[in-house]
Amino acid sequence: MAKALQQGATIGILGGGQLGRMLSVAASRLGFKTHIFEPGANPPAGQVADQVTTAAYEDTAALTAFANAVDVITFEFENIPADALDTLEKIRPVLPARNALATSQDRITEKAFLTNLGVEVAPYANIESDADVAAAMESVGAPSIMKTRRFGYDGKGQSRLKSIDDGASAWNELGNTPSVLEGFIDFSREISVIGARSQSGEVVCFDPGENVHRDGILHTTTLPAAISGSLRMDAVLLTGKILNALEYVGVMGVELFVTPNGLLVNEIAPRVHNSGHWTQNGCVIDQFEQHIRAVAGWPLGNGERHSNVVMTNLIGDEVLDVETLSADASVGVHLYGKAEAKAGRKMGHVNKISPKTA
Ligand code: AMP
């Protein structure tokens, strides 16, 4: 276990998007420096970090120099190539650790892990061949969703099946890459829990938020979620179970479906999560600070929510509404400093708070 980092220490962050940016701000508030590793030019995190390395994940020399220049390494995305991790891990601790990445990078590994843990997931079948497609149509059937096992995000790498005759075309659409067929869940709500675990094994979860997606991208997260107290408790306990089973260090997002038979896990993300942005204005200590505390070997903060919150993502041109939105004195504005408001691009978010009701 790494020793607690002292003020002035440097946290290395793989990925320079908005999550890396908000992690950098939190690290800076705690007296740390940050160093971003990002292949793309002018990353949003670069505007607030102390240092940026612009290099590919295949550039072993750049990875080595980066690792030597920092005290601990964390990341804002889960698809870090295994070879890059091999290089980095030899030099500095990478947190959350590799087992969590390996588990969540592949939907089949993730579902097997959750099932072993006694956590419910949608019925699923692995697909690697035409014969697997036929078998999956037998066992899971339709309606269902086929998803690539790796590299999916914001609804990308997915195909919906209305009938059992759609199997072959769906797999073609996904490029015949290894995939999973999931039974379509007729859920009443989507919720997520943002949980944190420290190096000493302390677990703190934020309240479950209720998520609404638009075009496959998160649109709003609302707190409190309109679910019973016992379901909220179930969601939090289940998240703690996952964190402990992985001996996880850092913040994780757990996405859940609410069904008449209880909760199903859709997916887990071994990082700070878009559906946890509400914590920035709804809690004294937000998900970004919680993550930095965990990877720095500090105790976790209090995850209690002091207000009701609605987080709304600003996608593409919606960022132009900021002038109007900011006229509301109870709206916290968070912009990512991206130059171009391309369609579908996350440009920022706002958190509207109101007095806590539940
Ligand atoms: P994912 O990329 O797995 O998070 O899926 C994106 C969105 O698709 C989810 O947030 C759900 O709204 C929907 N979805 C994914 N899997 C299922 C499923 N098995 N049944 C019903 N809806 C799903």
Based on the coordinates given, report the CATH architecture of the largest domain: 2-Layer Sandwich
Question: What is the number of independent domains?
Answer: 3
Please identify which CATH superfamily of the largest domain we are dealing with: ATP-grasp fold, B domain
The CATH class of the largest domain is identified as Alpha Beta
Contiguous helical run count: 11
Q: What is the makeup of the main sheet? A: 9 strands, antiparallel
**Overall 3D geometry?**
globular
Low-pLDDT stretches are none
Instruction: Decide which structural class fits the backbone.
Output: alpha+beta
Number of strands: 17
Q: Considering DSSP H and I runs of 4 or more, what fraction of the residues is helical? A: 25-40%
Q: What is the average per-residue confidence, as pLDDT, rounded to a whole number? A: 96
Question: CATH fold name of the largest domain, please?
Answer: D-amino Acid Aminotransferase, Chain A, domain 1
Order of helices and strands: EHEEHEHHHEHEEHEEEEEHEEHHEHEE
Radius of gyration in whole Å, from Cα? 20 Å
Bound molecules: adenosine monophosphate
Strand proportion, as a percent range, falls in 25-35%
**Amino- and carboxy-terminal Cα gap:** 38 Å
Features:
single chain, 358 residues, alpha+beta, Rossmann fold, Dna Ligase, domain 1, D-amino Acid Aminotransferase, Chain A, domain 1, nine-stranded antiparallel sheet, four-stranded parallel sheet, 11 helices, binds adenosine monophosphate
